[in-house]
Amino acid sequence: MTLPTRRQRPMPERGRSWGRDAMSEFDDLFNRMGTLLESTVGGGFARGTAWAPLTDLTELDDAYVVECELPGMARQDIDIELDERELTISGEYAEQERKGTLHRGTRRTGRFEYRTMLPGQVDAERVTATLREGLLTVRVPKAAGTGTRHIEVTDGS
Question: What's the CATH fold of domain 52-95+109-147?
Answer without folding.
Answer: Immunoglobulin-like (2.60.40)
